[in-house]
Amino acid sequence: MKKDDKNTPILKSxxxxxxxxxxxxxxxxxxxxxxxxxxxxxxxxxLIDDNHIIKNVRINEQQVExxxxxxxxxxxxxxxxxxxxxxxxxxxxxxxxxxxxxxxxLEYVPIALLNVNEEETLMMMASYLRDNKNSSIxxxxxxxxxxxxxYNYSQKEIASLMNxxxxxxxxxxxxxxxxxxxxxxxxNDKLSFGHVRAISTLNKTxxxxxxxxxxxxxxxxxxxxxxxxxxxxYCHLC
Length: 238
Known about the structure:
By secondary structure, this protein is α/β, with parallel strands linked by helices. Helices cover about 50% and strands about 10% of the residues. It has helices at about 15-20, 25-35, 60-75, 95-105, 120-130, 135-150, 155-160, 165-175, 180-185, 195-200, 205-215, 220-230, and strands spanning about 40-45, 50, 80-85, 90-95, 110-115. A five-stranded mixed beta sheet has the order 1-5-3-4-2. A hairpin with a 2-residue loop joins strand 3 (about 80-85) and strand 4 (about 90-95).
């Protein structure tokens, strides 16, 4: 991270310390342990807003339905982790429990208030998505792009945080530039990350044509790669 950028906020911890802390596989478990002894306050759900970085990212509908059933049967098994946002609060994680609670019109929910700044919040969310097998690759793209644009993280530093290669990080971050309907289809598993990665360098018209074929012919990722690299109209990719 560039230390000479006057717009970069002063951190409570150094970059190396932050990377060391949040690159741990058990980061979420550590957070839960840290706040296990704190008082879990019940507050009105109406006081909690969606996270401003990812509020426009669609949640997987099947996962929401599963969360709804669990909450109906057992209630919220753990508090919603939130940060203060003026006189209101903002969800940090788990976002799917927050969305499901809203759909159920719950009046009060348990919360644990996190004492972290925005940069630490983003790293926490990125780590959570990294460690969660059902995580949203689209949410991850928005969060990593924010770390890059607002806090000047290089792709090498982000790769270190996420335990991924730089090429994987590049492909994930590139998702944010796609049209909203494509992002929605990715979120609902109509399109896989592999499909999108294969067509990510095409222009808008070409991308729409390939996606139409994927839906009509149920093409695999390998099928799409063959089309992209073998079709004359896409020869600029060869």
